[in-house]
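Final paragraph of the annual report: two paired records, presented back to back.
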Amino acid sequence: MRFVIVTGMSGAGKSSVLKMLEDAGYFCVDNLPIPLIPTFAGLTVKGSQNISKIALGIDIRSGQSLEEAGAVLDQLRAEGYTYEILFLECSTSVLVKRYKETRRTHPLSGTDRVDRGIEEERKRLAFLKSRADYILDTSQLLVRELKTQIDHVFVENGSYHNFFITILSFGFKHGIPTDSDLVFDVRFLKNPYYVPELKKLTGRDARVRNYVLESPMAPDFLDKLEEMLLFLIPGYIAEGKNQLVVSIGCTGGHHRSVTVAYELEKRLSKSEYGVKVEHRDIER
């Protein structure tokens, strides 16, 4: 029996996740009154031979009874129930944009500004986030990317990292990515653009990567960059961050930044954190 509790910020995608889990064969219930959760668990987890996967949605709509959730979850553990908590996180700016686009009212904003309601909700849900087995930030995820992650963890039973690093290559002439947390300029490395046989290729090609990595400073730079990131990440985690966007820039975003992004991904993929690489300007 797999028992998943889905919670998180309003507008972060909880309803979508529950639909995805339902499509994957989970028996899903949303916004069940908190005091009824132990009864629900008894009827489904231990009381039914036909249900093997359960997903229960909990959110700020529970009102004052949300404060009871901690005690109820402790009760479930004490009674021998095994459950996992998925917390859906999202940045305030993205949530505000989503509420404006859908013209919906945030559950806690009332006649006040939406961002104030969001921050109040973040405070009230902090205790659930601290208990979460999985924290998934949907700020930059497309629906298909969200489904891929949900399927990986809750359908394919794959491993999941609560801290995720996105390594993003870009070209300075197209502007710095607005969602960057850290930005590094690699325009000091050898530039394949000025080599006729390499000019039209990208850092996806081994010849370009070899040329860039032959730069005298490349090995030391990668060593120091890896060391610095692994030093900084525990500090970000301690401050409640669950993802980091590391942007690597060169002039056009085709050669040097792509090469360094690939090399950094190889190094960080050996760490305990989740890592993916994206190339914003490689097709421009």
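The closing record of the year follows.
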Amino acid sequence: MAGRPSRELGSVMSSYLPGVTPSDLSRCLPGYVVETLRKALPYFENKIQGFAMGDALLTGVETRSSSPVRLLRNADGQSNIKGLYPMGEGAGYAGGIMSSAVDGMRMAEGWMAAGS
């Protein structure tokens, strides 16, 4: 948000394996996306306290592209990378926003039923 990479991670711990590296979003995303995030995150913070914490992590972004690739997952939804649960359109399990939402809900319900 400040236009520079963080020097270290704060209180928010990432569960993403193999880990995260602080970076300046303007080096990863188009300018219009960065500006939209800079405007949107404070707006959501006003609606949901804690949503845009100063040390929050953005570890995944949605793109406007799709791919014919499907990330394989086992019966409990985990990929061959321990702790990675691919779901939705980007993982090849959905074709749009509604089917992505349904896949995410189905995965979440499976985790809750399994007591994960």
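Residues 1-61 form one domain. This concludes the annual technical report; the extension proposal builds directly on these records.
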